[in-house]
Amino acid sequence: MRRLLTNILFLPLMILSVSCAEGDPVTAPSATPPPSVAAGPVGSMPLLPAGSHLGLVVSFEPVPRSIRGKVNQELDTAYGKGMKITRVMADWADLEPSPGTYDLDDLREVLEENSGKGLYTLVTISVLDSEGMVAPEFLMDDDDSGRLRDGMRFNDKEVVKQFSALLDHIVPLMVSNRVFAVALSNEPQAYLESHPGELADFVDFIRAGRDKVHAIEPRLAVTVVNVGRITNTPLAENPLVADLVAVSDVATFNYGPFTSNPEELAIDKPQRIPRDIRELAAAAGGRQIIIHELHCPSGYRSGKSPMNTSQAKQSECLRTSLDSMLKMPQFRAVYFASMLDWSPRLVGMFTDPLRDESSIPRLYVDQFAEWYATMGLVWYSDGTPKPAWNTFLEGLDKRYK
User: Fold this and answer.
1) Calpha distance 290→293 (Å, rounded)
2) Is 3's pLDDT higher than 80?
3) pTM
4) Structural domain tally of the chain?
């Protein structure tokens, strides 16, 4: 457990969209026709409107009714300032519950809703993610949930063929609903670090998926969401990142200004951020970049912060990150991780089991809990915007005015 946690940067939970409010759609701008685009070379996103874009995910869970009005009001402001990108996540296992049987209703619904609102979407279809392997159950080993059955490898013909058939169904759905890029896994480094012998096979799998997507729609950019935590080893020199970037059309990272010590989850000084951004750019190898999740937690409203952060530090980190990234045309789409903090219930689902693990230091668990309890720009308890929400809105002004 400890080895896994120290290498996880961000944890996805479910299909994410800009509409997460207990069945009621959040407000969004009226749809406008998508711009005409031409096929672009590897390294670009021709289906994304020109320029750099800033967006966010509203929540990782249903927005409580008690604060929904406040959240929608703030979203109205963001849309009015030009925000036009969102993102969606799903696991292969959920999309294909049995061989050749596809459950695409939820994905179709959210993509059509986003498109109808005039939003452009990044879709992540995970085979590996930060919590492990999420391939369909019929491909998994009955006795080991972290292995494919019968000794199969990622690049075996059966696995590649099965995923290719899924892409036949979902790629047309995506391109007809303003999807500009698709990621074929989220933070696979968490799994691959424990299974280094499978890296080459997984690279082959991603390459085959990329080629299949391009055969259907050459303009749809293919990528993998990589861990973007900056440590003492440059990302460009880490084969778990570099080899996957090399088979991607564009480079995608999850990033937060954490210290370089992987044994802790403390927020570093904002002054390090421009250097980190340059390292992400270097790791992209000349490709355009998506920041899938930008994390700058605020810390609790009162008391000492285990992560060494604060509301003021959140604002400074966000402002410095956006200014650094969006001065560089290479950064085409930047998503803040979440508008809303996680609920105490959801935080507890992840942290309560960790507190029972004697091998995990209490400080680390406290930092992990604070991170997710205060990851947003709006307080979960009452829907009040934090100072960093205004920083986000200022970022939209800089992008779209």
Assistant:
1) 9
2) no
3) 0.90
4) 1
